[in-house]
Every structure is written in C-alpha cells, then in structure tokens.
Amino acid sequence: MLCPHNALARQKCILDNGKIRAVFNSGDTFTIEEIVMDGHKVAGSGSFAFWDLTLLGPMGETPVYRPKVARYQGAVKTYENGVQRYCFTWFLRLDYSRGNYPLRAVVSLPDDGDRLYFNLETELPDGWIVTNVKYPELTLCHPENAKVIIPEGWGLEAPLSAAGHKAVYPTSSMQFVMVHNADGALFFGTEDSSGSRKVYGVDGNVDMHLSLDVPASEAWTSDGRFTLPFAVNLGFDRAGWEHAVTHWYKPYSYTLPWGGEERKIKNRLSTLSPWLLQTEGWVRLKTVEDEFDALDKAADLLGEHLSAHWYWWHQIEYDTHYPEYLPARPGFAERIAQIHRKGVHVTPYINGRLWDPHSESYARDGGADASARKMDGTLYTEIYRTSCVVNSVTCPYTKTWHDKLCSLVESIQTEYGVDGVYIDQVGCTVPVPCWNPSHGHPRGGGSFWLEGYQRILRDIRREHLRPGGILTTEENGECYSDLFDMMLMVNSLNNDHLGPLKIVPVFPMVYSDRIITSAFTALPEVLEVGVPSTYRYAFAKALLYGAQPGWVRAFIITDPKFAAEAAYLRKLMDFRSTIHDIVLGGEFVREFTPLGANPKRDFVRFWEDTAVLGAEWRDRDGKPAYILVNTEAEAHKVLLPKDALHRGKVTVPPDGAIVVR
C-alpha cells in the first residue's frame, strides 16, 4: 500500500465515480468536506481525529498519536486498475535517529464501486510496535429519526442516541454496523477473514460518529512497518438495511473460510448428525435429582424429536471451579440411558473459556501459565451473578487448554453416553488481547484466538467426538460457525447498555442456508400465564427464523398451567418437521407483517407485534415459500406481501402455522 513519492498536494482532493463523491481538504490540516453517496449527503464539513494509534516502544513507552500531535504533509492521488486513491500522510516524531516516520491513511474508490474503502499503514523505528488502532474515525451528518442495527445474535435494532452503541466482533456475529431511516441505510464494515477482534462504534451526539477500534497484533508490524491487514468500507443504500445486508455482506460471506458453498446445509445433509437434523425443539434443565422427572414428562408431551441441554449435571457448585466438571452427579448416566429410550438426545454444558483461579486444577494443571494476560501481566478476570466467584480467561492457543477441552469432551461422552457437548462462551464472548510471551502466538490481538479454537475444535471433531455426536456453542460469531454443528441463540436481549432493543433477522438473511440454530432468546424462568404469551411469541419467532424452537425449562413447559404453551410448541415442532426443505438448507429472505385481519398485540417482555407473523424464504430449489405463524387460539385471514405470487387471503389456523408455496 506504499504511496508513491510524488509531491504531496495541499489542495482539495476529490474522489468521484458518478455514484460516490468524496471531497477532502488537504490544506494545512486534513478534513473531510463532503461525502455524497447515491445522491445522499453522508458527511459535511466536520473536525475529527480520523485516526488514533497507540504504540509500544523498546523502553516501555506507550504514546498515543493522533493527527493533532503529528505533522500533516498533504496527499497524493493515484489511479491504478480502475481504482482512484488518495494517500494522506502525517509524520510521527518517535526518535531522533531519523526524525519523521510517515503514517499513511489511504481512501480508495473503485470506478464501479458503491463504497469507499479505508486502509492504513505507518513506518516505525526498530523495536516499536502498534498495540491499538482506531481507524477510521468519521464525523458524519446526523440522520433524522435514525436507528442503529448491530448484528449481535439475530440482530439488534435500537434508536441512534448520544450515549453510543458498540458492536464487538465476533461477539457481534458479523463485521458491520448500520444506521438507517426512511432515506436508506448507511453501512460501515470490514472485510477480514482472520476473526480478529474489532469494535465498531456509533454515536449520535449532535453529529454522528463512526469508528473502528482494533487491538493490534505485533505480527502486523514487520520490518519497521505496521499495516492494518484489512480494509474498512463505508456505503449508503437507498433501498434500506435489508438490501444493504443481502447486497454487500451476504455475497462477501461466501468468500470467507467458514462460509463457502461447501458449508451449505443442503450440501452437508449426509454428514450432519441425523438426530440433530430430526430435532424440532429443545428444553433445558438443571441438576439431576430435581428436574429429570420434568424432562421425562416433556418427552411425552413434545415427542421424540425433542432434545435437551443439561446444566449443572456435575457435582461442583453451579458456575464455580471451572473446568472441574467430573465426576457427574450420581445417577446422571442412568438418566441419560433412560431418556434415550424415549428418543431424546442430550448435550451437557461446559464452559470453553473460563478457568477458576482458585480451583485445585488451576494450580495442579498449569492454569496460570495458560491464562490470557494483559500487557502488564495481570489476569483477565470476570464475575457472573450466577455464582459471584472470580474466573480467569484462558488463552485458547495454549496446549494446556487444548488438551483440557479435548479430554473433557471425550470423557463426558465416554463415561455418561451423552450425544455431544455444549461448549459455552466460544461463540458469544469477545477475544482478549494476550501478552503472555510463552504462548507461542504474536502478542496483542489478531488471529491467534480463532486459530487456537480452530485447533482445539477440529481436533475434538477428528479424534474425540463420538459418531453422531454434536458440538454446540452459545450465540453465533460467524468465524466459529464451521467448528460447531449448531449455534444456540439466547443472548440477544441481554445487553441492557444498548437501550430499547428490538430483535431483527440480520443473521438469517446472511447465514440461514449454512448454519443450524436453536431458540430465539433466553426465556424467563419465572413467568405468569398471560395473553398474549411471551413463550408463544418466542417459539413462533424461532420457527420463522429457521431455528429449532423452545429452549424452555422442562419444569415450566410441563407445568399444567402452561399446558396451552406446551401444546403450541408441539404443534410448531410437528409443523417444522414438514418444511425441512425450507429451514434446513433454504434461504431466509425477509420478515414481513401479514396484512388483513391481523390485530396488534403487546407481547410482554418483547414489543408490539401482530398476532400472525410472517417470513419469506426460498427452499433448497430456490422456490419462494411464505411461512405464517399464528400466536393466538383463533384463526386469522391474512394477506401475503404484494409481490408474492399468491394474491388471495390465507387462513392461518388457531395456534398453528402454514406454508404457502
């Protein structure tokens, strides 16, 4: 990406391809004067940092450089292979041996492009590395009545606010954020196949600010030069956020190592676990003594296509002493064998990331050496309200953690006859920069976290997973999707810091054809019977998004006062078994609101929605299919979208679902 040594211009710099026009002021200081995309003004004149670089020097120096403490030199324009570029240069004064080290921020526009691209590099003295980079930091026009979409879980929508919003990848499952209103959708994303941690920031304080914040890997600095190893892109889509996702990100997802054509479910039907393909719903339970009878009853109520996640099956106190799960509680193996006779499959829970530093195994098995370390050498520690004990974050790149997880998965299956293992926190929690020099990976951020889990989980699948067994994780970081058989979608509404939230189907718009999912969101364990039903809504939405519904506690769904909810879940499970050509290998197109006799209801814990819910899909053969789910005990006559082939009214039966093809 090196800029040619042309004379640096100090004048207006313009990139223009007829679709996008970006004007930069390259006088004594750098500013963006205007960005217009598809006739829509995205940015006007504004002052902002544009970049922010944190460095580590050989004597422990940790300076933070921004444009105001660097010397702006001007810009060079180039044109090559159909791409216009401006390279804006600043000098960093890091030592006296050479004086000035150029930092180059490059903005590119392909002739046929509908997005701007941002790259960054800097030269450094010997012994220096970049530890964190914020780039680009953009001040843009504040859109009226705008909402932010973050691809966390299924996708979250919240009002644009001054408080700000952060999407932390890969906890936030895909590499972008969007801001949309009636004018269209602004898309801010990256194209990176390494799984590196990234924080996409949005805030709406007077102007709107977008930023990308990345913990850097020392591997990104080589031979005295740091290079951000991926491009950041910015686009505006007048057709709206749904079109932006399917036009820009979905095609890109097929180029990623975990998202290619070979990952399509329809191409893997013969290799996926048969019982997973036949599972239509889930329950969850805790302990062995107290809840097994409820699981037994749930099997009778919900049928043989039921599966279960089992928590606290081990003797240690809940959420403590990780990873000392063995031995199990007395009677666990016998109950697994018993429930198998009713056709129910079970995956017990373990945590794939945390090690209790006060456990015996932490001292005995080298936990301290395997822990991820901050730059100052201290541990990353986390406390959860389920136990209130201290946990340390373990580095997945270490052989110690690799061997620990491989041994656990094999032992749990062999000793208790379970049908796989549910490994929590791999797909739902953020990687941390690790500065432990003994782990064998480049220090800082970067790809090592994903590479560590790839090594662990691929070895588990190859050497330790029993035939027909599955691996599940919580949530849906895309870069882990090829390592697991199913992704459990339960954390979408657990982010109070984001403000008022609504779940929107961003993830199925991209990955419905390649990833099997279950549940809609975590359901409360204490809930009174009400109309409209919280449970019905969650079951219905999971089905619409292609997931295996349920994930309700076994003792709740078998409680007589929830008999109607149990019957409803059974109906949806039976219906789902008839549309495998849609939900197992088809493609989710969009969610829609059926018109007609479709009253609005205020679903407790969620939001206002209609009694009958709808989603458009394409089946495995690419043919359109419209799924309609009724959350009420009375029939409703509704209309499909205007562009559907079916023009008449459709009757959706009480407590039921239909598909219109």
**Molecular shape:** globular
Low-pLDDT parts are none
* Total DSSP helices: 13
Straight-line distance between termini: 51 Å
Number of strands: 42
Derived from helix and strand composition plus strand pairing, the structural class reads alpha+beta
In this structure, how is the largest beta sheet organized? 12 strands, antiparallel
Residue fraction in strands: 25-35%
> What radius of gyration results from the CA coordinates?
26 Å
- Arithmetic mean of pLDDT: 94
Query: Approximately how much helix is present in the residues?
Result: 10-25%
Q: Which terms would index this structure?
A:
single chain, 661 residues, alpha+beta, twelve-stranded antiparallel β-sheet, 13 helices, globular
Kindly describe this structure.
Among the domains are: 1-141, no CATH class; 519-553 and 564-661, no CATH class. The protein is an alpha+beta fold and 661 residues long. It is globular. The protein contains 13 helices and 42 strands. The mean pLDDT is 94.
How are the SSEs ordered, and which strands pair?
Elements: E1 12-16, E2 20-26, E3 30-37, E4 40-43, E5 50-56, E6 64-65, E7 71-80, E8 83-92, E9 101-110, E10 115-123, E11 129-140, E12 147-150, E13 156-159, E14 165-169, E15 176-181, E16 184-191, E17 198-203, E18 208-215, E19 221-222, E20 225-227, E21 231-237, H1 241-253, H2 274-278, E22 281-286, H3 292-302, E23 306-311, H4 332-340, E24 345-351, E25 354-355, H5 360-364, H6 367-370, E26 381-383, E27 390-393, H7 399-416, E28 420-424, H8 448-464, E29 470-474, E30 486-488, E31 502-503, H9 506-511, E32 517-518, H10 534-544, E33 550-553, H11 554-557, H12 563-576, H13 580-583, E34 587-592, E35 595-596, E36 600-602, E37 608-610, E38 612-618, E39 624-630, E40 636-639, E41 649-652, E42 657-660
Parallel strand pairs: 22-23, 22-33, 23-24, 24-28, 28-29, 29-30, 30-32
Antiparallel strand pairs: 1-2, 2-3, 3-4, 5-6, 5-11, 7-8, 8-9, 9-10, 10-20, 10-21, 11-18, 12-13, 12-15, 13-31, 14-17, 15-16, 16-21, 17-18, 19-20, 25-27, 26-27, 34-38, 35-40, 36-37, 38-39, 39-42, 40-41
Helix pairs in contact: 7-8, 10-12
